[in-house]
Amino acid sequence: MARDLWLVWLLACGAAWTSAAEPDLKKGVTDPAQADADFAWQGEYFGTLCVRGCRQNGGLQVVALGEGRFSGLFYPGGLPGNGYTGGAKHKLAGERVGDVLTLRGDEVVAKLQAGRAVSVSSREGAFWGYLQPLYRYSLTAGAPPPPGSIVLFDGRSTERLKNAKVTERGLLQVGAETVDSFRDFILHVEFKTPYMPLARGQARGNSGIYLQKRYEVQVLDSFGLEPQNNEAGGLYRFKAPDLNMSFPPLSWQTYDIHFQAARFDDAGAKTAPARITVWHNGVIIHNNVALENKTGGGSPEGPQPLPILLQNHGNPVEFRNVWIVDRSSPACATPAVAKGGR
């Protein structure tokens, strides 16, 4: 009897250890090795098609929604930042059965098979051509801090940050804010959203870059979605990005932000709004936008500069290579952080 109880206890402990080791897709995973089988199907595809007798490029973004379900967004002309110049996009949806995933929309059908190109056709069955997997990276990923800049995080020191927590892999977690306050600046941030296929909306890889703790540039897993003011790249609840340049989750992405603080007179009255230009993954998404007021839950506007905050929204977003050029000093040169939008 005692031996049987001991065996039951060992089996229970083993089950608990196994359960603890399993990745929690609801909370999000930060390592591709912990992702589910659907992760390999998610991504971007690009190619040249023959649509109703006309040759044109096309792009497809495939989004994992958990338990074999997927959505897709088809772009005529190519992918955002790589050929897509506007025009009607086509939403698709479908499920994976074995090694075949079929996505259907009102006009487009895409069929994915493991190890093969994506077959694209019309809803009526007319074959258009194939799309190949495409793995993109930001033009400013790994950008070195220019002379005169302040390194906020380089994978080692956190002396320029408060509430900083660093993972075993040397990545910065959410919740950190700068020790110093900044007025006018150029900020470079690299971030990675977690893989959370079962999450939706604001619960899917949420964080934010709070400039002066007043104005938020949203961080979110918005891959494969329409641009919105509360999605990735949005000036939160104020302005949507001109283009949704989100990469798939677990991809390194970049924000390059030029910020000029609001101006106030001696009596404390605002005389000029804050202005912001943002590049997302090397492509401009906000161009010299005037910020009418603080965004979302930001601190009230005022003449005093405040720190920069990497928002903790409860999701395991990670950061690396964070640096800033303080432009408040007239002697500070303005480096070229990102080369124009495409």
TrEMBL record:
Residues 149-324 form the 3-keto-alpha-glucoside-1,2-lyase/3-keto-2-hydroxy-glucal hydratase domain. Residues 1-20 form the signal peptide. This is DUF1080 domain-containing protein. Keywords: Signal. Pfam families: 3keto-disac_hyd (PF06439). Gene3D superfamilies: Exo-inulinase, domain 1 (2.60.120.560). GO terms for molecular function: hydrolase activity. InterPro entries: AL/BT2_dom.
